[in-house]
C-alpha cells in the first residue's frame, strides 16, 4: 500500500492549502500537517513553505514531486489492471487542456467515453500550454492536449493542424477581398493572449513584421473578440478557438497560411494505464471523424 503521506503530499499540491487538502481527503487539518511533518522528518528536509495564503513547494519538494507522483500513478495503474481483470472497468483519468479544446472537443469526447466506460472517473484541468506539459511530465496529469512542438521527454501524438486566422472589426475587408496581406496590416494594433506570443502566433506576426509595441495582451479568446469588436485592434485566433466564440467581427485567412499543431501528450508510465489507453483511443477516434481530410496528421 502507498503511504498516506504520499497521498497527502500530492493532494496539498493540487489543492494549494492544508485546509482544502483535509476537506478533499476527509480528514482534519492537523492530520494533514502531521503527515507532512512526518514525511519531512523521514526525508530529512522541508518540502513545503507554509504561509497564511497556503503551501508552496520548496526546491527539494519540486525535486521529489515527480518521484512520489510516479509511485502514486503506478499504484493507480495496478488497481486499474486488477479492476480490468475482475471485469470492473474502474479507474480514473486526469486530463489537461487549453480553453478551445475544453469548449469544443472535450464535451463530446467525454460523453462518448462515458457511454463505454461509465465507472471510470474523469477530471479536467484547464490551463496554459506550458503548464499542461509540465504537469504531464510531473505525473499530476495523465493526458494533456498540447501545442507542438513538445520539448519534454513525453509520448506525443500529433492530432491536427489548426489554421490561424485574422479577426477584424465588422466592415473590415482585405484589399484583395479574400485574405489578409501586408498592406492590410500596416500601423494596426494587435490583441492576443500572452501565452500565444512565443508560439505559432508569433510566427505570423514576425512574418508580417508586426512590431512588439503594436501588440496588446488580453485574457482569453472571447475577450480578444470583444476588444476587436470594439475597434481596439486586430486579433489572431486559430480556427478551433473561433468555433463557439460570440462576436460581431470579420474573420479572414492570412495570404500566407499559418497553423498550430495540436498534440496529445502522456508519460511512458501513464501510457500503460488501461483507462489512459482507452481515453487515447476515444480521442483519436473523435479527431479522426471530425478531421478526416489532409489536416489530420499522425506521428
UniProtKB/TrEMBL annotation:
From what superkingdom does this record's organism come?
Bacteria
Q: Does the keyword Signal apply?
A: no
Tell me the ranges covered by the HTH lysR-type domain, including all copies: 1-58
* Entry GO CC: cytosol
Q: Which PROSITE patterns match?
A: HTH_LYSR
Leader sequence residues: none
Cite the entry's keywords alphabetically.
DNA-binding, Transcription, Transcription regulation
* Record keyword Protein transport present: no
Q: Output the Gene Ontology terms for molecular function.
A: DNA binding; DNA-binding transcription factor activity
The UniProt entry's sequence similarity note says: Belongs to the LysR transcriptional regulatory family.
Q: Which PANTHER family match?
A: HTH-TYPE TRANSCRIPTIONAL REGULATOR BSDA, HTH-TYPE TRANSCRIPTIONAL REGULATOR YBHD
State the protein's name: LysR family transcriptional regulator
